[in-house]
Amino acid sequence: MASSSSSSSSSKTNKSHTQTFPPIIFPLVAFLLLVSPLGTVHSLPIVSDSGHRSLENQTFRPQTELQKLRRSPDGDVIDCVLSHLQPAFDHPQLKGQKPLEAPERPKGNDSTEAATEAFQLWTHSGESCPEGTIPIRRITEKDVSRADSVEKFGRRLRRGVRRDTTSSDHEVSPELYGDNYPRFFTYWTTDAYQATGCYNLLCSGFVQTNNKIAIGAAISPRSSYNGRQFDIGIMVWKDPKHGHWWLQFGSGLLVGYWPNLLFSHLRTHASMIQFGGEIVNTGSSGYHTSTQMGSGSFADDGFRKASYFRNLQVVDWDNNLLPMSNLHLLADHPNCYDIKAGRNNVWGDYFYYGGPGKNARCP
């Protein structure tokens, strides 16, 4: 399990990556569980470090299922769907069920849901969905048409990772969303991205319990380069009573959970947690992509310029939130994107990461 806050002015996702991972860590999922986020934004100013889903499941059935819809300033349509009719309950083993009640939070976690904000663009005018419903970003034909095929829509590239994986944080993905907004996302797979799993609620799996967070919606406010910084806390942990993997966003909003029946290895615990950034680098043009990771600045540029994760923590077998230990750093292509870690009394364990991609030292 793990907890952290991360900040980034912008980023784009997948393949070549800079990340950190502690060797053996126990259940938490918002990163790569394995666990891997990408960079984020929060409501409060930050003190510096020194002080299988078919196409018909991507629309919703009878109109009566939609209680209300909201239009976001970025053009997204957010549908309020009855919680017991959400995509998760299309899963054969979840049919007929309803979302579970909130579990016990890890000891040492001082967040309070009552005082939190959603940090999403569609909620800026005070919008939320009614109790008993969940907000779902509407998928359009244009969204699906950007994928190579319907089957590949909402799926990640195949990667050499461990079988069971969940991830959550923020990403920029023009192919998936059609714009360059940083968006809060989730992902899960049980076969290393071969055939199972998906982004957000695009297949049956993740069970959402919150009526204020639209998974896949744009994040706001966002950090500005050399300006005001925002970050969002993410925590994923395994409920010791029922064994499900719960996701907390911001200062205490429970978003929902990945049922343990989805997984094999993660039914008991996580063996690794990864924090960091990823970008797509197909190399099809013969040189490295110029896609930025994070803000596009290298780690040495530090606060207000480089992206970061701070207050890295883990949840142990007894549901205690503890400081990170034995953090190992890895940068696949350090001339393109790098990483630098530290520790202090303000940020606890933290690291800066990112880079510009293609440059004089990264041809």
Produce the secondary structure layout:
Layout: E1 2-7, E2 16-21, E3 32-33, E4 66-71, E5 77-82, E6 133-137, H1 141-145, E7 165-171, H2 174-177, E8 183-189, E9 198-199, E10 207-208, E11 232-238, E12 245-249, E13 253-258, E14 273-279, E15 307-315, E16 321-323, E17 328-331, E18 338-344, E19 348-354
Antiparallel strand pairs: 1-11, 1-15, 2-14, 2-17, 3-14, 4-5, 5-6, 7-8, 8-9, 10-13, 11-12, 12-13, 15-16, 15-19, 18-19
Structure description:
- By secondary structure, this protein is mainly beta.
- Helix content is 2%, strand content 29%.
- The protein is built from two helices and 19 strands.
- The strands form four sheets. Strands 1, 10, 11, 12, 13, 15, 16, 18 and 19 form a nine-stranded antiparallel beta sheet that branches. Strands 3-14-2-17 form a four-stranded antiparallel beta sheet, with no helix packed on it. Strands 4-5-6 form a three-stranded antiparallel beta sheet, with no helix packed on it.
- The longest helix is centred in the middle third of the chain and has 5 residues.
- The radius of gyration is 19 Å and the shape is globular.
- About 13% of the residues have low confidence.
